[in-house]
């Protein structure tokens, strides 16, 4: 018999942030934002340039130090000092490794081959046996359609191929969740589709993701929840069909017109 109780109970929380504030000097960039992603959720963050999207994503893995707020990764609360700085560097390192980050600029090491890029941290930082790391890297390269590029240097790859390699590199860490910061906005238009295709596959297999994107059609298609940031605050949020199909706030309506 089907267990309806189990299928209705929500999956565990992967990422929770509460009351997140971030200032750069006198400039308050995040004014108290909240987010909860359960395992398997795809949360899309949209909003105009300068609204705080990257800062929000970067605070989640402490690439930026929050000014205040709570961050909980996989049920584990990040220990912060009252000024938001990490109380335990090793905890930050460990939690950061559980979040695969993909940037707008692919950030591959240019003097290493694609395979070397993928195995560097697993082997030399985490101590994964090399043959095991290589096998995993080759499997992930095949998954993003780059099996034949393992020995190539990044400069010999197109932007779309480099970004797919960067995604495979993040996956090599076997992350609990993936964080994408406008992964296609540095790409020529004809290369956007191949990268979105890889992200779509990850969503379909139930990966937890937080995705900052300007690709509204894509956000609507893959996300389970959409957050619209304006000026450091969540102006509106909800399921994608509601947020895109029936926006309530005038600012969001206006924003959707400008990006359409
Ligand atoms: P978005 O990703 O939505 O375009 P960001 O999070 O990058 O926005 O930036 C939000 C605001 O914070 C902008 O005004 C930006 O200039 C400012 N900002 C971002 N990073 C820094 C920094 N390291 N130092 C000072 N100001 C910053
Ligand atoms: Mg940004």
TrEMBL record:
It holds the Pfam family ABC_tran. Keywords: ATP-binding, Cell membrane, Membrane, Nucleotide-binding, Transport. InterPro entries: AAA+_ATPase, ABC_ATPase_HisP-typ, ABC_transporter-like_ATP-bd, ABC_transporter-like_CS, MetN_ABC_transporter-like, P-loop_NTPase. It comes from the Bacteria. The lineage of its organism: Bacteria, Pseudomonadati, Pseudomonadota, Alphaproteobacteria, Rhodobacterales. GO terms for molecular function: ABC-type amino acid transporter activity; ATP binding; ATP hydrolysis activity. Residues 15-256 form the ABC transporter domain. Belongs to the ABC transporter superfamily. SMART domains: AAA (SM00382). It is found in: Cell membrane. This is ATP-binding cassette domain-containing protein. One of its GO terms (cellular component) is plasma membrane. It is a peripheral membrane protein. The keyword Protein biosynthesis does not apply.
């Amino acid at each position: 018999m089907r267990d309806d109780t189990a299928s209705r109970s929500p999956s565990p929380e992967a990422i929770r942030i509460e009351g997140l504030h971030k200032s750069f000097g006198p400039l308050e960039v995040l004014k108290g934002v909240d987010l909860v992603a359960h395992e398997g959720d795809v949360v899309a963050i949209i909003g105009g340039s300068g609204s705080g999207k990257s800062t929000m994503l970067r605070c989640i893995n402490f690439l930026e130090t929050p000014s205040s707020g709570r961050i909980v990764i996989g049920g584990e609360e990040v220990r912060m000092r009252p000024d938001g700085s990490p109380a335990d560097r090793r905890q930050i390192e460990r939690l950061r490794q559980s979040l695969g980050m993909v940037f707008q600029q692919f950030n591959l090491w240019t003097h290493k081959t694609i395979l070397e890029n993928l195995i560097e941290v697993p082997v030399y930082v985490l101590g994964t046996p090399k043959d095991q790391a290589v096998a995993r890297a080759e499997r992930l390269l095949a998954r993003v359609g780059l099996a034949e590029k393992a020995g190539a240097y990044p400069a010999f790859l197109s932007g779309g191929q480099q970004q797919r390699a960067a995604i495979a590199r993040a996956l090599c860490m076997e992350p609990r969740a993936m964080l994408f910061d406008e992964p296609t906005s540095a790409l020529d238009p004809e290369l956007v589709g191949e990268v979105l295709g890889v992200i779509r596959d990850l969503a379909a297999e139930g990966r937890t993701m937080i995705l900052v994107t300007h690709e509204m059609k894509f956000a609507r298609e893959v996300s389970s929840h959409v957050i619209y940031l304006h000026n450091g605050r969540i102006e509106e949020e909800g399921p994608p069909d509601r947020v895109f199909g029936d926006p309530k706030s005038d600012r969001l309506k206006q924003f959707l017109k400008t990006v359409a």
